[in-house]
Write a sequence for this structure.
């Protein structure tokens, strides 16, 4: 595989597309670029060897298993094309607008080069929008047909959707890098093409940003204006990436980078953003997958760092652009693009548009903390406001309990041995938990 055909089709004095620098990639990158050329299509690209093997998918990927989408095999593209977003000038090959619609990692089943030759690729994707098992199958050529037609097909798994479910293309039309749509790129086509969206001018690095705080409510808000995320039981951490290094700051601005070890900062520094501020929470997960605050505290006390995971849920600043005034769904789309393919210690906190009370019920059944509900179009609100609402699975109550033991004094049949109070997650007031001698776990004398 080589780039001669790719370069022969382009005049790089007229187009901002990369000519293709000699570089090695991660070996497992994939990207889907939405391309409004003569006809709108989606360019599906898989890193194989030192290039991006590419297919033009006319109708775009479908999440419905078995639904076949025509994918025309086109020339290989350079690895740095995966970051290209902007406008290809009129009169150039492929003229039109391009956005990075999705990207992440892919995992082939078997040797991908051999699969290309044989005409079948079976693989899994882990992107911001496309996940699970997929298949690319080459069709037989008809007489005189010059182009090489394949079919892109979604496999059956948990990431699949039914034919009556929303179409992912309509549900998430924007770029995972900038949040812009094809139409928004077209409106600015006179401007110089750019790989990352930023407002006019550059915003100064804000330093420590006071975190947004959620207001406690008995139940989550209802309506389409809200999205819901899992509430974690960990340490709220603001990550700041500058100059190839990452710092981990507590909600009061203290630098706790050393306390959490080197793995998470190294992963954040390697995400590809030279300057960024992320909001999230560091947790330790128990056997069930739920965050376990007691285990987190125990690991911090013991100096153990191998179980920490950083769940990121907001994107505040990137490369000279202050993102806090952008709508939440735009910030989350850019965040998903940034962390797609990141090491496992850095994970995206997914949001859900389903009914809040149903989501809370599911969270409680899984023994999770609860939900944090956020306005889908809201800006980032430092401090406590009604824009973020938290609803918990159980309330804690304080109550007094006492125990008794037989007295050694013959003049009295019994005596109070100990007394104290406990915190309880139970919902029944007045619940009793008698104990003898030393206090049970969670209780104090």
């Amino acid at each position: 595989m080589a780039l001669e055909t790719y370069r022969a089709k382009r005049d790089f004095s007229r187009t901002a597309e990369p000519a293709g620098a000699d570089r090695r990639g991660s070996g497992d990158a994939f990207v889907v670029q939405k391309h409004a050329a003569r006809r709108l299509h989606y360019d599906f690209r898989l890193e194989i060897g030192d290039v991006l093997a590419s297919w033009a998918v006319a109708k775009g990927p479908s999440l419905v298993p078995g639904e076949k989408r025509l994918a025309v095999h086109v020339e290989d593209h350079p690895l740095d094309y995966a970051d290209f977003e902007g406008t290809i000038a009129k009169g150039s090959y492929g003229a039109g607008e391009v956005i990075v619609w999705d990207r992440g990692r892919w995992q082939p089943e078997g040797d991908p080069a051999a699969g290309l030759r044989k005409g079948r690729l079976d693989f899994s994707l882990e992107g911001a929008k496309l996940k699970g098992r997929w298949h690319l199958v080459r069709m037989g050529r008809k007489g005189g047909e010059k182009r090489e037609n394949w079919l892109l097909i979604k496999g059956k798994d948990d990431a699949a959707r039914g034919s009556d479910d929303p179409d992912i293309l309509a549900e998430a039309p924007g770029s995972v890098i900038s949040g812009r749509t094809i139409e928004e790129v077209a409106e600015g086509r006179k401007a110089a093409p750019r790989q990352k969206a930023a407002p006019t001018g550059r915003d100064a690095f804000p330093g420590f940003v006071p975190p947004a705080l959620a207001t406690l409510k008995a139940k989550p808000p209802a309506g389409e204006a809200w999205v819901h995320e899992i509430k974690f039981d960990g340490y709220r951490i603001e990550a700041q990436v500058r100059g190839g290094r990452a710092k981990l700051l507590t909600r009061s601005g203290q630098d706790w980078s050393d306390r959490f070890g080197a793995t998470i900062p190294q992963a954040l520094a390697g995400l590809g953003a030279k300057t960024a501020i992320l909001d999230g929470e560091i947790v330790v997960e128990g056997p069930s997958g739920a965050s376990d605050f007691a285990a987190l505290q125990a690991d911090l006390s013991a100096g153990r760092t191998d179980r920490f995971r950083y769940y990121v849920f907001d994107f505040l600043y990137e490369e000279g652009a202050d993102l806090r005034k952008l709508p939440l769904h735009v910030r989350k789309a850019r965040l998903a693009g940034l962390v797609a393919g990141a090491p496992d210690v850095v994970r995206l906190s997914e949001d859900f548009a389903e009914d809040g009370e149903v989501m809370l019920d599911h969270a409680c059944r899984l023994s999770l903390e609860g939900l944090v509900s956020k306005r889908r179009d809201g800006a980032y609100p430092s401090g406590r406001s009604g824009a973020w609402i938290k609803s918990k699975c159980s309330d804690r109550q304080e109550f007094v309990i006492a125990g008794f033991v037989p007295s050694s004094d013959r003049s009295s049949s019994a005596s109070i041995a100990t007394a104290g109070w406990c915190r309880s997650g139970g919902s029944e007031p007045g619940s009793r938990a008698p104990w003898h001698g030393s206090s049970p776990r969670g209780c104090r004398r």
Observations:
- The chain has eight helices and 23 strands.
- The chain has three domains: 4-187, 212-392, 397-444.
- The longest helix spans residues 328-339.
- The longest strand covers residues 96-108.
